[in-house]
Amino acid sequence: MNLKITKTITKITSIALLNVLCISSFAQITEKPETLEDKVDTLYSRTESLMNDVDYIKRLKFSGYVQAQYQIADTAGAKGNSFAGGAFDANVNNRFLLRRSRIKMAYDNNDEFGNTITQIVAQIDLFSSGTVVIRDFYGKFTDPWTRWFGIKAGAMDRPFGYEVTYTSGTRETPERGRMSQLLFPGEKDFGAQFVIQPVKQSRFNFFKLETGLYNGTGVLNNDFDKKKDWISRLSFFKANFNETVKYSGGLSYYNGGHKYGTKNNYEMSTLTNGIKSWMLKDSNATNLSKIGKAVYYGVDAQVSVDWKGGLSTFRAEGIMGQQPGTAKSSGTPRTLVAEDLYLRNFNGAYLYFVQNILHTHHNIIVKYDVYDPNTKVKGNEIASNLTSSDIKYSTLGLGYLFNYDQNWKFMVYKDFVKNESTGLSGYTSDVKKDNVLTFRIQYTFNKYQ
Question: Which pLDDT score, from 0 to 100, does residue 238 have?
């Protein structure tokens, strides 16, 4: 009996499986074959996806440059060396140095007219000591309607003058001038900026306004007081019809300051014996909550002329104002000072002349810059009552630049530094040991500004 039941179940199962196989085969036979139109649609979908990926990759750009150099100072531990790429050791008069090693990432999202609506920029510097420093890290958003107005926030250039914001990878001299380095150490700062710049298609595209608030301490230091620095620059740029002559310029304004380090408040005065010196104005505890104001006024201009002899470029910039500093330095403090603060009136300027030779790879550079950190004293008025930070300096730079191609650049440049003769010991005449000769090789990859 059990055997009959087993045979019956086996027959039923076999018939069921056969029916399933038949139905499956029939479905495959009657299934509609893929048409040419279906294949085109599939190809279009895949192509569209690939193009979206390519478009995304094109928005993301990597670039960078490396500057390696060899320097020779006139004497070991040259006093002017801090403005030629950092201090020489007391026993060193020549050195190899990796001056800059930058890697930059930029993500741009443009509209159909090529105007950038959103942008993110990150740049780091890799030093030979093994340290990594943030140079830029900001985001920028431009309104998508008029495309005239933008906001920018993060670590970025201070929008003052021309030289401070002129990238080191393109600049024709090894370093910025003494004035730029003292007033704007590190060039970059944390802050937020409002930008007005007409779109490329507008006839008003020749001007740009940048204004913003910044910590005032640079990107390597935390803010240490409640005072924020307000920096603004209004610039323009024009060219003739065939662009053989280009000219630009700008007006800059800086209003900031630094907290007093002590309760002492000094001012520059003339003593009864006729000697000019710092005099204690008051010594109130309330001074510890005061801000020593930093106010700068700047003007700059640039002209380039393309003619048979090559491209001739002229640049000039002047800055004047009031600068808070210490007895030892007229530079902008980047940390809270724990000593007396002195408010100096200053002025300074620089002139560039760059001549390309007959549209070849060869270029000649001449630069002159001057910086007077304390305009209320000069010459023999600077004696034991003052310090070397009150001395006026001028620097003549002469150089040769060979642009092999868009990647390789070779430079030979020498700074001739001169200080005014004073009544201060060690500076009664020009200290003839500040000069520095620089040999530099620069490699740039994926050049993108």
Answer: 94
